[in-house]
């Protein structure tokens, strides 16, 4: 693993001024020094155009054919298109081709900077087979290029395109550094794609932590690898995307905390990577870290975090709750524009609710569309991984490649109607209801389908299942919604037993979990099964009574929570699950359905933190039938696009 402090004496055993002189290569290379060469054996930090980079202590690519050596030189490798087979015609590298390639690097690779064009290596041809036109040389010269070189295919066949650092005759990979300024991460990771090994990650590849800290506020540092290099290796639409994963998802070589220090201390580094994560790694997605979460996945507000500090929500006055339990994943995707997707887990709203508070898109997929292997369970009946992202188009791309096609409808029918879930909106303020109503009307209009208010409670009263024996929906189902506590409690007991064996005393358990455990201890297996059977009755009734005729394939519009300030230093007074009936956060899980959290607007409020008006995200949920995940995303994307609404949100204080 790599350890150190960003531009600190721990990384460089000399003064800061000497370090800056030795490694600042924005203009030209410094005079060679024994110190610089020695430090590169273990990695070093340098600056380019205001960004900081790390040269890892990995095996370098030895560029033996270069006609010069360089103490420190910025390099870009451009891969020359392959020659037509059998053609002896000498090719030209034109200014147009170079310009297009550089433009692609600039647009698609945030690790690249034009400063890396100081030296350009054209890989894939030698000077006898290609000619670099004068116009191309002139174009590169205007961008600061001083030297060019050519490397023919037999040499360094696995050299990847993108930015590098040249040290003597050695070409080194570079990672851009980004601080975790919002405290979202549990651990940051070394990139796994080697610049000199053209292979995919296998399940036998162990990850290692990247133990660098920002010397200013001691924030962990993320190491970002070039997107260009990933796209050169993996032929997937997801190649080059970056992700973080929630810290209840196992990763080979890294310990899992599940948000609890005792859990972290009990188990060794994981021996396997979760299947759902491996599937993304196999498609070239770069994993940069694991994120904080509510302990064991229970609903905790920031003031209730004990073992680890709650992540910081970047929205509004930056002192708002990030939601949970996938709090770190949501905070990270809302905070960092270099991050593309964050993976969370969801039992009853643990992806969609933090999407609401952090102002981003969130998908809880159809139950069974992702493997649960390698995820610390809460309640396996409803547990699933899910996606958080700022861009709905990215969400669709990831879902299309990630979700199991066997769990999705291969030929989904058009959506039949829009259902306004009438029972769920009585806790929402009028202005938010009006915004949601407007969106529901747009969905119906764009998709050319009808919209109806539907009360599930009234429908139950009119046509109850026989098992209800005359009980209302709330009377029949409310108590049953607490049944998952039995599973959550018993899933943790093997950990408790192993901790006791290892440390000879009980582990610390947060107050929220302890309260739930105290309740669950008194729930029998028979009572748990009885309550789950009631939820099965509700699911079957919903399919046979609600999802019929004109509502046979509806989009159901639901709230997530009422948007009001929820400061991170507030002690919660609102009611948390289990709540009356199958609420908005529970309907999707109980129905095994996909639920998409959709950011619509922001709500102004007077912040007691900044003493000025701030704006909180307003995000609602749209549910489809099981297997309609991709059609659901497509439909909402179309509605947003055709009504001039954003299909992506920004990182930072404001969504739009």
UniProtKB/TrEMBL annotation:
PANTHER family: AMIDASE 1. Residues 234-404 form the Amidase domain. InterPro entries: Amidase_dom (IPR023631), Arp1_N (IPR058329), AS_sf (IPR036928). Residues 89-149 form the Scytalone dehydratase-like protein Arp1 N-terminal domain. This is Amidase domain-containing protein.
């Amino acid at each position: 693993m790599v350890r150190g402090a960003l531009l600190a004496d721990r990384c460089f055993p000399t003064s800061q001024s000497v370090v800056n002189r030795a490694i600042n290569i924005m203009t030209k290379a410094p005079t060679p020094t024994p110190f610089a060469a020695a430090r590169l054996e273990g990695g070093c930090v340098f600056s380019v155009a205001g960004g900081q980079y790390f040269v890892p202590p990995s095996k370098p690519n030895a560029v033996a054919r270069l006609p010069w050596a360089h103490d420190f030189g910025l390099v870009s490798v451009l891969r020359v298109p392959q020659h037509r087979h059998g053609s002896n015609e000498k090719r030209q590298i034109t200014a147009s081709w170079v310009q297009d390639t550089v433009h692609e690097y600039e647009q698609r690779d945030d690790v690249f900077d034009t400063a890396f064009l100081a030296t350009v290596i054209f890989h894939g041809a030698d000077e006898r087979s290609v000619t670099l036109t004068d116009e191309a040389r002139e174009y590169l010269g205007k961008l600061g290029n001083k030297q060019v070189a050519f490397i023919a295919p037999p040499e360094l066949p696995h050299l990847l395109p993108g930015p590098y650092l040249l040290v003597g005759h050695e070409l080194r990979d570079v990672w851009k550094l980004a601080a975790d300024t919002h405290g979202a991460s549990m651990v940051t990771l070394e990139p796994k794609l080697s610049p000199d090994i053209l292979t995919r990650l296998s399940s036998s590849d162990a990850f290692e932590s990247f133990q660098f800290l920002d010397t200013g506020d001691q924030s962990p540092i993320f190491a970002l690898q070039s997107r260009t290099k990933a796209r050169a290796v993996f032929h997937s639409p997801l190649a080059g995307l970056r992700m973080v994963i929630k810290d209840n998802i196992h990763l080979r070589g890294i310990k899992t905390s599940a948000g609890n220090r005792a859990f972290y201390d009990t188990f060794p580094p994981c021996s396997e990577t979760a299947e759902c994560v491996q599937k993304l790694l196999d498609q070239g997605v770069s994993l940069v870290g694991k994120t904080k979460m509510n302990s064991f996945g229970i609903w905790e507000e920031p003031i209730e975090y004990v073992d680890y500090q709650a992540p910081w929500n970047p929205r509004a006055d930056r002192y708002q709750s990030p939601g949970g339990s996938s709090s770190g994943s949501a905070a990270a995707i809302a905070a960092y524009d270099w991050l593309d997707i964050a993976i969370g887990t969801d039992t009853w709203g643990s992806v969609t609710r933090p999407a609401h508070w952090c102002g981003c898109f969130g998908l809880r997929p159809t139950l069974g569309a992702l493997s649960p292997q390698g995820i610390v369970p809460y309640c396996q009946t409803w547990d699933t991984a899910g996606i958080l992202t700022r861009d709905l188009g990215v969400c669709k791309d990831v879902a299309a490649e990630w979700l199991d096609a066997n769990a999705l409808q291969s030929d989904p029918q058009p959506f039949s109607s829009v259902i306004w879930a009438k029972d769920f909106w009585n806790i929402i303020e009028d202005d938010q209801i009006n915004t949601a109503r407007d969106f529901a009307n747009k969905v119906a209009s764009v998709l050319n389908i009808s919209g109806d208010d539907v009360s599930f409670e009234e429908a139950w009263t009119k046509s109850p299942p026989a098992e209800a024996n005359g009980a209302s929906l709330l009377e029949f189902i409310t108590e049953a919604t607490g049944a998952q506590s039995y599973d959550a409690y018993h899933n943790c007991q093997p950990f408790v037993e192993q901790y006791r064996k290892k440390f000879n005393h009980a582990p610390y358990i947060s107050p929220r979990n302890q309260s739930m455990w105290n309740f669950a201890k008194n729930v029998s297996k028979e009572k748990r099964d009885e309550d789950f059977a009631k939820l099965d009755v509700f699911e079957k009734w919903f399919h046979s009574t609600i999802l019929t005729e004109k509502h046979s394939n509806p989009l159901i519009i639901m709230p997530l929570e009422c948007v009001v300030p929820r400061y991170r230093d507030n002690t919660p007074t609102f009611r948390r699950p289990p709540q009356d009936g199958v609420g908005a956060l529970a309907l999707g899980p109980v129905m095994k359905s996909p639920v998409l959290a959709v950011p619509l607007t922001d709500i102004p409020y007077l912040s007691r933190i900044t003493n000025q008006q701030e704006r909180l995200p307003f995000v609602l949920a749209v549910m489809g039938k099981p297997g309609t995940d991709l059609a659901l995303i497509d439909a909402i994307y179309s509605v947003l696009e055709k009504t001039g609404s954003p299909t992506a949100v920004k990182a930072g204080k404001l969504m739009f």
